[in-house]
Amino acid sequence: MRMGPECPECLRNLARLTADLSTADPKLREEMVRRAEAIISSYPPSSVPADVSNDFLAMIMEVSGNPDPFRDRKREEMERARRIVAGLEKPSELPGLVELAAVGNSLDFFLPPSVLEAAIREKPRFALDHRHELAERLATAGEVLYIADNAGEIFFDIPLLEFLAGRARVFLAVKERPVQNDLSLEDLRGIDLPAEPVAAPAKVGVYLSHASEDFRRRFLSADLIISKGMGNYETLSEVELGRRCFFILRAKCWPVARSLGVRKNDYVAAFL
What does CATH list as the number for 71-271? Predict the structure, then answer.
């Protein structure tokens, strides 16, 4: 997926947030934002948004000396998500489990509890809905690669992972090192997973050119790939996947929505 006219400002906001989280030094924050602006401005409008963000995120971590600016935010997000999911009645069938995973992709875990509860109770309506095909494909799948997104989402994903693991060998792709607020290997400590973790490159999205041999092997051999979130969509939509990849996401911005042919804030559960 290529950038839309809204992307540069969104990328600037991400750069400012990451700089603020990475250090308390106002002069260093200002320097990193200035350098991020130069990076953003250097990319042509036809760029993939994740390419741009990965460039300035790496710069901010290097300049600040902070390898995980979102660490505290992720921990709080994960704890809130854990508590929320523990209080839910879990679906038992595939359609409802995909809905739960999609809701996890839509939430801002820092909203007031009452607002969060209302959002979770609202049943997602999918503008693109291939859940029936997912069930058919799963019936013959030997290996499934599930590509995680933000850290807090994992608790919304685990019920679906448990369902998948009862029918195939499941690998869970998480970042080998921290990047943004994505789920990484170190975030998995203390979580009982029904899938085998595999280390993906420490970049927003999926980049086979930077991946380990193990990740490339799992990616290329999987009968079915399930991808969560917009960052993974931005990069995987640039790869020929032979309709092996099932995307679960909420289109939270217009560039992603236009790319998918849906409206902003629509849910998607589809092979693309």
Answer: 3.40.50.10880
